[in-house]
Specification:
The chain is α/β, with parallel strands linked by helices. The protein contains 14 helices and eight strands. The chain has a single domain, classed as TIM Barrel (Alpha-Beta Barrel). It is 41% helix and 17% strand. Bound molecules: iron/sulfur cluster and zinc ion.
Amino acid sequence: MEIQNLMKEIREDALDKMEKRSPEDLSASWSGEDLLYSGVAKAIFIVLPTPGCAWAVSGSGGCTMCSYVADSPLEKVDTDVLVDIFKKSMKKHHINEKTVVKIFVSGSFLNPDEIPKRARDEILNFLKDHKNVEEVVVESRPEFITKKVLQECCEALGEKIFEISIGLETSNDYTREEKINKGFSREDFERAVDTIKNTGLKCNARAKAYIFVKPILTSEKDAIEEAVNSAEYAESVGASRISFCPATIHKDTLMELLWRGGSYQPPWIWSIMEIIKRVRKLVDIPVIMDTAGFGSRRGPYNCKKCNSRLKDMIIRSNLYQSIPEDLECECKDKWRSEIEFSDLTRSTTNLVRKK
Ligand code: SF4
Ligand SMILES: [Zn+2]
């Protein structure tokens, strides 16, 4: 497959160029406000170093928009080192109110080759004993979501909410396979959600769907339609929450290559607003829109006059699940015409920004 060969080449070049960094250097943590199932509260985000996403380091080359593998030491991290990094990261944050802990491993938390079982158990066990931790959120590809692994997690975490975020990206199998190179189908996603929802165990496991906004080779208009359809689909097959990830250009990816060549632009923030407005009316589960990279050269972008205002509105809409009010700006007509002529031009770039 053409895209997989390209990805493999790009990934091999990127890995060759990569500077080696220690697991400690590659870890990070921060805190903020977020929407829990029980309302707005504190969130702690922890990035743990792992040997790298199994899909990205395999012969597939990984997904066309993702460079998370560059944040990995690319070799096994000792379990004690991993647990120690996790505990030290937790210590940096006060947990005196209800809190969600989100663990990012730049891959799959449930893959024992990325996070060994003993490290996973110790981390979840540690969180089980924190009375203010209400939810624990991790990420995994569907192939690592098995009844056995979930059973082990439930034993370690007890009855706290355990949410597994899966990178569905889109409900469209063609886009996921041919434009994203994701390597799994809707069927795989549905099986994973079903396993999570029907563990038959005394635990509170839930599935979240990540939806990617504007994959490569997709027009602005199609990106909106596909995001909205994907949200409806994710809810219909049992996801308990949705998180949209609007494209930002990661280094050393096929997306970056196309962007540098003028064949790709991240979505307009107006498109993001349109998606939120439509999805809030269509689905009943909580929907979050990631605002990372908004207004930057490599991220979703309107004009300097309205970027930050819209970003603030989206953050508020995330916390309270409200429908953002209508706003006008002189750049909105340019976005409208791009959407209007999308079918005609078949353009995947922001024509306005080419001036
Ligand atoms: S998007 Fe997820 S599955 Fe794809 S390469 Fe990145 S970490 Fe791996
Ligand atoms: Zn504007």
